[in-house]
Amino acid sequence: MAGTESTAPVRSALVTGSTRGIGREVAVQLARARYDVCVNCSSEAGLEAATAFADSLAADYGVRAIAVAANVAVADEARALVERACEAFGRLDVVVNNAGITRDKLVARMREEDFDAVIDVNLKGTFHCCKAAAKVMAKQRYGRLIQMSSVVGLHGNAGQANYAASKAGVVGITLSLAKELASRNITVNAIAPGFVQTDMTAALSDTQREAIADRIPIGRLGCASDIARAVVFLASEEAGYITGQVLTIDGGLSL
Hints:
The chain is α/β, with parallel strands linked by helices and 255 residues long. The chain has a single domain (12-249), classed as Rossmann fold, CATH 3.40.50. It has helices spanning 21-32, 47-61, 75-89, 112-140, 151-155, 161-181, 199-202, 206-215, 224-235, and strands at 12-15, 36-41, 65-69, 94-97, 143-148, 186-193, 246-249. A seven-stranded parallel beta sheet has the order 3-2-1-4-5-6-7, with helices on both faces. Helix 1 packs parallel to helix 2, helix 1 crosses helix 9 and helix 3 (75-89) runs parallel beside helix 4 (112-140). The radius of gyration is 18 Å and the shape is globular. The termini are far apart. 45% of the residues are buried. The model has no long low-confidence stretch (mean pLDDT 94).
């Protein structure tokens, strides 16, 4: 009926590690899709830039946006991050577990602390945020948990045993939580990007980048927007019957 206002709730989202790369583009695309967005950086040192980014999202897309500094590898900080998003928006509908680091070396040369650091952020950080968010979403009887895995977690990669282990673990958490939370109308899915043009791949030489592109049937590295658009779909109402899936977005690299 003309003039009738929609009663659908305004959806809100938290994106961890969202000040650069894929996470930043995910925050942009969610704001464009009219989600309120909580931007996250890992420490107070990045909070000024994160706040400026959140302010730009609010100005550009007419949504509410905040920035919160929290190291998701620390359980108390991850829990406080989720609580802050809930306080700001009144609910929390989507959590995108994107925060991740690399400490690449061959296993023979890898220090234990480098292995632990990657596991703590990439895997335990996902666990901490999922645990805190699931409690909120279960009460709402609605939620979308979206994890960022990697093709490296599915197929391995020399020099990245720690990263591969962390991203394979993210898949395991995703599949388990999908079974645990489905009855509460919470979907849990993962995305496994291939080689994407971000800060993590910027260190590659032109020769290395060309060699990688030659292995990809589509013929190019991915863009952050290739991943972000998939996140927006998995966060949407239209994806409500999709859970426990790992969506590989790699231009055909895994074929």
